[in-house]
Structures are given as structure tokens and as C-alpha cells.
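Structure request: Cytosine deaminase, Rahnella sikkimica.
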Amino acid sequence: MNFPTPASPLKGIANVRLPAWLLPAGWPVHKGEPVTADLRFDAGKIASVMPCQPEQDDLWDAHGALALPGLTEPHAHLDKTFTIGRSRPSKPGLLAAIETMHQDRQHWTPADLHQRARRGMAWAAANGVTRLRTHIDWFDDTPPLAWTALATITQPGVTLERVALAPLSFFADADVADRIARAVALSGNHYLLGGFIHSSNWDPTAMTHLMRSASRWQLNLDLHIDEELSPVAHGLSWLAHYLSENPFSGHICCSHGCALASGSEQQAQEVLSVLAAQRVTLIALPMTNLLLQDAVTHRTPRQRGITLLKEAQTAGIPVLLGCDNVQDAFCPAGSYDPLDTLACALFALQLDNVFDQQSRLICDVAALTGEAQPGLPLASGSEASLVLFPGSDSLTWPLNSAARLVFHHGRLTHQRTWNQELSHES
Ligand SMILES: [Zn+2]
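Returned structure:
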């Protein structure tokens, strides 16, 4: 395959294999797979998407390579990332990781935060991520250093969102809750209010204050909620009950929701039906859940700790997959590659039809923001931003698919090449 040159914008890409979920109804199918597409660009936007035709000589030929719109990383922690080398927890599990993170904070200068967060953003961009949401820990009711330091970080082609991650106990006092929400609302662009909601800090009054202060300051929410295996974790069931009685004008993402998988089927269905009706998005974090839930030294974990993703999809709840922590006390590994997250979910959640259907879990911006989109990604008029996977195919993907061509506004911005194996057998 001859690659396009980064300097010049393309007129379009011919012969590209898009997933079935991305294609309009009635798209032709050959041998059970959607036929490849010709994408034409105009001024950095998609001008047309048509079934592939021969002899489109002005377009760059992708030779049937798989492609997706720009990828979404809906849940990261850029303030903590890349600290595992200096801060490794002595015990397994979530609460020990939180303790280690507090010890590591002594190193969090503006230079340290910038260097680590920039590295994470650069990795994500090279992998094809165009939207990255990071949670940032708050330690009292005023914005922490990382909140302002990370606001100034830019990476071409990537929109960065910040979520203020405060423990639920900070919202116990209504005035403090309001101060936090106000500070978030006056934070410039792309911000949300968050919270860490867990059996260890459960407080329904604080939850009410959190919801009311978010409403008052017109904030969207992204909550770390029920990141545990307790069948009686209160967060999601309380939230479902609250939303069924109180209107909330913003959009809500619920991250983790592990405990949904521990309770009864009936309990889960009641919660999921309310979340579906309220258009709440569920974000599953399979890698950190597998690592941190049911984690005991020298014992093989029995429980997977991942939320009820399939049941949520069946209920019509928008669902996304995120990486969560990367190379820190919570998760020693990680790559900022949504394909790695999806590959993990493929096995942990036994996903089917991964490229044609489940690839949506790593590029659905509408699910993240809750904002209605004018059409499907890569529809005519949308940004000509996409990721190609040369050398892969719909059965291999997302495994063995590290090679990438990333396009923004019709121009090649990142390229990781893939070389055909050379046999040395004689
Ligand atoms: Zn998280």
C-alpha cells in the first residue's frame, strides 16, 4: 500500500470498509459484509459517502482497509497517569490505589502534570482519538492545581474535557456543594461535575446536594458510581429513583456501575429501565475493573466486576468503553488505545460482531455528550476525521491492528506503518 503524503489534503478515500452500524439503511452487502465505500472530502468535511465504484482515480485507494470515525476515549485520569514507576501500591484493590495516589501527589507540580498529561494526549492522538474526557481529582472545595494546569493542554485534533472528581463527602454541606459546582461552571470550556460514589462514603443527603448544585449551575455529570461488588451499593438505584421524581436538564454519564452485576436481575432491570428513559449513558471500564475488583493477593479473582453492558444495550441505554487509569497505582498497564480496551471487553464480556456493531462502543460521541448529532459520523457534512487500520480485517480486528492512518479534516496527521512479514524459511 502506498500511503498518502501528510502535507496535502486528500480529495477523498476510495475503497474503505466501514462498519455496518455507520452505514445508511439499504447499503449493499456482498457475501454477508457491507461493500466498501468511496468517501469524498470538501474543505475538510465529508462531501459524499457512496458504495465503491471502479476507477475513482482522483481518490486515494485504501484497498479495502477497515476504517472508523475519530475514536472516543470517554474516561481517563491524566492527572495520575504515568506515575506507576514512582508510586506502586503495596496491596491490591481500589482503596489501596487511592491511598497510593494521595502519596504521589507530592510530585504533582505544573511541569510534572503537563509532561505526563501531554504524553497521554499524544499517545491517544496517534491512536486516532479525537475526543478525550479526563477526570481530575479534587481534594477540597477549590479547584486543584491539575484542574487549571490541564486546562491549558492542547493536542491538535483532540477535544479535551475535564470532569471534577470529588468524593461524595464534599457534597454533604449544601454550601460547599454549591461552591464546587460554581467553580466548575466558571472553568472555561469543556468541563463537567463528577463525584466518587461508593458504599464507603454513601450519603443520600450529599447526593441530593450534588444533583441540585449541578442543576443550579447547568452542569452535565459524569459519576464514578458503584465501583464495587457489593450487591447493596446504593448509587445507581438511588440515582434512578431520584431521576424518576426530579427533572434534570443536563446529561449524565455513569462510569463503572460494577455493582449492577452483583445484585439480582430484577434489581438491575428496574435501574436500567429508568436510566434508559432518562437517556443516561453507561461507561464500562473493563480493564481497571478486572484488575481492581475481587482483588486479593495470591488468589485468583472469581468475579469480573464489569457492569451489565449487554443488558444496558438491550434496554436502549447509550454505552461506551473507556480505558480508565493508565500506568498508575490503579492500573500499571495501558496504552490510550481504545482498540486495546475493546479487545479486553471482547473476551471479558463475550462480545460478538465486534467490528460491524461493537466498534461503536469506542467512537460514539453522541453517547458521551448527550447532544443530538445531525447524522451518523462520517455522513455528508461531518468532519473528514477518520482512522484506517491497514493490514487488518473484520475478523482479526481489534487484535493485531496497531497499524494506523489517522486523518483530520481530510489530511493525514499520524501514521504507524505495518510491514508484511518476511518469511526466512528456505
Ligand atoms: Zn476512573
